[in-house]
């Protein structure tokens, strides 16, 4: 059996759901979800989402793309942030269970302005760039 669905949310105030002390504020996003079951269990799924606006820690992020897949216990995907305060690309795959368990993660960050993003105010005037590649077998 297979199924699919679309979600479109505009101006959702997450703080009303998560509580007034939530670091997440207003969010605008759309998502497409597909899935297949086999023998009554989820066998394969995909989530594709575009976050056009996300208030987080009193900073408004724009243009976040998410593409996540699951098939036979293996999870893979890509998350990209294109923002004036930095570029982030995270991709990889993980199979957490079984003899053939593995993890492969790649993170590429360019010119992340931690102070403007309200992540590390004492880093004002500095930007962070790095590439991280991690493999586990």
Radius of gyration: 18 Å
The total beta strand count reads 9
State the end-to-end distance: 33 Å
In the predicted model, the low-confidence regions spanning at least 5 consecutive residues are none
Content-based structural category: mainly beta
Major sheet = 9 strands, antiparallel
Number of helices: 1
Describe the protein.
The chain has 137 residues and is mainly β. 4% of the residues lie in helices and 69% in strands. Strands 1, 2, 3, 4, 5, 6, 7, 8 and 9 form a 9-stranded antiparallel sheet that branches. The model has no long low-confidence stretch (mean pLDDT 92).
Describe the structure using short key phrases:
mainly beta, 4% helix, 137 residues, 9 strands, nine-stranded antiparallel β-sheet
Précis, in short:
4% of the residues lie in helices and 69% in strands.
Write the SSE topology.
Blueprint: E1 2-13, H1 14-18, E2 24-38, E3 41-56, E4 59-61, E5 64-71, E6 74-83, E7 86-95, E8 102-112, E9 128-136
């Amino acid at each position: 059996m297979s199924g699919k669905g679309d979600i479109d949310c505009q101006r959702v105030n997450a703080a009303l759901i998560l509580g007034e002390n939530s670091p997440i504020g207003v969010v605008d996003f759309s998502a497409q979800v597909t899935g297949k079951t086999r023998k009554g269990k989820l066998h394969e799924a995909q989530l594709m989402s575009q976050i056009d606006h996300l208030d987080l820690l009193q900073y408004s992020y724009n243009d976040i793309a998410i593409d996540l897949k699951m098939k036979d216990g293996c999870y893979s995907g890509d998350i990209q942030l294109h923002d004036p305060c930095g570029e982030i690309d995270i991709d990889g795959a993980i199979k957490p269970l079984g003899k053939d368990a593995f993890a492969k993660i790649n993170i590429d960050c360019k010119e992340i302005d931690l102070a403007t993003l309200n992540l590390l105010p004492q880093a004002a005037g500095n930007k962070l760039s790095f590439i991280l590649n991690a493999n586990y077998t």
